[in-house]
């Protein structure tokens, strides 16, 4: 269980992520208009809850941890604003995968 903020800690199987910024330029240096920028589906995990609960009451550990780079669904998540920055809350089961470093 990692804590990125003293004021906020996700509960159960929730994961707080910070999405990557969208690309503003192409590799050749051309500016990309806002309407053409795709939704960013990669993010960094900044805080995790302790894990979900199984039917027998035991704790099911999360599959991600603080600092992991994850792949998110295009839509979903709950927007949370902390310290004037935008973050998103997802359930551990909603995260599509993680990238190995």
Automatic annotation (TrEMBL):
Keyword Chaperone included in the entry's annotation: yes
Pfam hit, one: Cpn10
Any one GO molecular function term: protein folding chaperone
TM helices/strands, residue ranges: none
GO cellular component, as recorded: mitochondrial matrix
Keyword Ribosomal protein found: no
Tree of life domain: Eukaryota
HAMAP family named in the record: CH10
Protein name, per record: 10 kDa heat shock protein, mitochondrial
Annotated organism of origin: Octopus sinensis
């Amino acid at each position: 269980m990692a804590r990125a903020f003293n004021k906020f800690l996700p509960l159960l199987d929730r994961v707080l992520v910070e999405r990557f910024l969208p690309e503003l330029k192409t590799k050749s240096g051309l500016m990309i208009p806002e309407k053409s920028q795709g939704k960013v589906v990669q993010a960094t995990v900044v805080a995790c809850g302790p894990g979900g609960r199984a039917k027998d009451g035991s704790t099911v550990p999360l599959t991600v941890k603080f600092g992991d780079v994850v792949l998110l669904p295009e839509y979903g998540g709950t927007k949370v604003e902390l310290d004037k920055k935008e973050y998103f809350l997802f359930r551990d089961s909603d995260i599509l995968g993680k990238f190995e470093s």
